[in-house]
Design goal:
Layout: H1 11-14, H2 28-33, E1 36-38, H3 53-59, E2 64-69, E3 75-79, H4 84-96, H5 105-117, H6 122-132, H7 142-154, H8 167-179, H9 182-188, E4 200-204, E5 207-211, H10 225-243, E6 249-253, E7 261-264, E8 269-272, E9 278-282, H11 283-290, E10 297-298, E11 301-304, E12 310-313, H12 316-319, E13 324-325, H13 327-334
Parallel strand pairs: 10-13
Antiparallel strand pairs: 1-2, 2-3, 3-5, 4-5, 6-9, 7-8, 11-12
Main location: secreted
Keywords: Secreted, Signal
InterPro entries: DIPK2A/B, FAM69_kinase_dom
Length: about 325
C-alpha cells in the first residue's frame, strides 16, 4: 500500500546507486539487516497516516526523518543533508559538469586521482578544498584532518593504520564537504567528548544517522520566566565553550537560529542540532605559527540587511588567523 510504513532500506531513502558520490557505508549493515525502522517514531503522529515516508517526504522539505532502532530503542534522526532540489542539482552537475567545472568532483578525480587515493595531508586537503570551493576546509590543520579521519573510521569500527587505498573514503568525505559538512563536524567534535552536538551514528548511501535531541528552544517562548532565564544562561555557557575549550579549537556558528538549538531538560544541557554552517579553526596551529603568546581578536560587524532584517558579517580568512572571535557571543545575544 502507498501509505504503509517504509523501511530504511527502501531505495528512495538510501540511494546507494549514487555512490561513490555518497556519504559512506558504515551503517549499511545495521540498516539493511538489523531492523532499524523508519517512521516508527514521529513526534505526535506515531502509528498514524502522518507517520509514513510518503507524507513525511511531502511535508518535510528539509529531508529530515525520524527513526527508531528496534533493538536498542534509540530514537534517531535520518538526514539526507540537503533539499531534494539541491541534491538533484549536485548530481546533474557531476553528470554533466556544466555549471562550473572547477567545482566538479569528476574533474577533481581526473586531475588529482593519485592524491585522492592517499590519506590527505594539510597541503593535499587544501588543494582539493580550494579546487572544489569548499569553505569549510579553508584553514584546516593537520590536526583537524587527523580528527576528521579518526571520527570517520570510528563509525566503521576499524583502523586506518594499514589502509593503503583511501579512494572511496576520500570521495565520501569530499561529497559530504560539498553538500553539507555536518557529519564531519559531528565526528571531529563528538558528543562523547562533551561537545554540544548530537551523536553521529554513521552513514549509508545518501543518508546519515544521528541522535534525536530534545525540544528546540523556540518551543519555550511561553514557558515560565525562570525556565527561559535558565535556558538563556545555558545557551551562553555553551556558546562560550565553543570559543574557549581544552581542545583549542575555535568552533564558530555562522547561522545560529533558535530552531537549531535543542535543550535537554533532564540533563540541563544545550545542543546545536544543525551543524551545516559551522566553521572550525585550529588555535594551536595559529600559536605554532605566531608564538604561544600571540592573540588576535576579531570583532563581528553588524549590518542592516533590508527585508532580511539585521545581519552579522564575517570574514573566514580573518577567522583563520584569529585566536578569539566574538561571532558566537554576538549571535547568541541577538538570538
Amino acid at each position: 500500500m502507498l501509505y504503509d510504513h517504509v523501511e530504511v532500506e527502501d531505495g528512495r531513502i538510501l540511494e546507494l546507486h549514487k555512490c561513490p558520490f555518497c556519504y559512506g557505508h558504515s551503517l549499511c549493515n545495521d540498516l539493511l539487516y538489523k531492523g532499524t525502522k523508519l517512521n516508527r517514531y514521529n513526534i505526535g503522529f506515531e502509528d498514524s497516516l502522518l507517520n509514513t515516508y510518503f507524507l513525511q517526504n511531502i511535508l518535510n522539505i528539509k529531508n529530515v526523518f525520524f527513526a527508531l532502532d528496534s533493538y536498542s530503542g534509540q530514537k534517531m534522526v535520518i538526514k539526507k543533508l540537503a533539499h531534494s532540489s539541491e541534491l538533484d542539482e549536485f548530481d546533474q552537475n557531476e553528470k554533466m559538469c556544466v555549471k562550473n567545472e572547477n567545482s566538479c568532483l569528476n574533474k577533481a578525480i581526473k586531475l588529482y586521482g593519485e592524491i585522492i587515493k592517499r590519506k590527505f595531508n594539510q597541503k593535499s586537503f587544501q588543494t582539493l578544498s580550494n579546487f572544489l570551493g569548499i569553505d569549510f576546509g579553508r584553514c584546516f590543520s593537520s590536526r583537524l584532518i587527523d580528527l576528521m579521519y579518526k571520527g570517520y573510521f570510528l563509525t566503521y569500527s576499524k583502523s586506518m593504520e594499514n589502509l593503503e587505498d583511501f579512494y572511496d573514503h576520500n570521495l565520501a568525505l569530499l561529497t559530504i564537504l560539498k553538500i553539507n559538512p555536518e557529519p564531519i563536524v559531528l565526528q571531529i567534535l563528538p558528543k562523547k567528548d562533551g561537545w554540544p552536538f548530537p551523536e553521529f551514528f554513521g552513514s549509508c548511501g545518501r543518508i546519515i544517522v544521528e541522535s534525536l535531541e530534545d525540544k528546540t528552544i523556540d518551543q519555550y517562548y511561553n514557558s515560565p520566566f525562570q525556565m527561559r532565564i535558565k535556558i538563556a544562561k545555558r545557551l551562553l555557557e555553551a556558546i562560550k565553550e565553543l570559543e574557549y575549550n581544552k581542545f583549542d579549537i575555535g568552533v564558530y556558528l555562522l547561522d545560529l537560529g533558535l530552531e537549531n538549538i535543542s535543550y535537554d531538560e533532564q540533563n540541563d544541557k544545550i545542543y546545536f542540532i544543525d551543524a551545516e554552517n559551522v566553521f572550525l579553526v585550529d588555535k594551536l596551529k595559529i600559536k605554532a605559527e605566531h608564538g604561544e603568546d600571540f592573540e588576535n581578536l576579531l570583532n563581528s560587524d553588524f549590518e542592516e540587511c533590508g527585508q532580511y532584517g539585521d545581519c552579522l558579517s564575517f570574514n573566514l580568512d580573518k577567522m583563520c588567523e584569529s585566536t578569539q572571535v566574538d561571532l558566537n557571543i554576538y549571535s547568541g545575544l541577538v538570538s
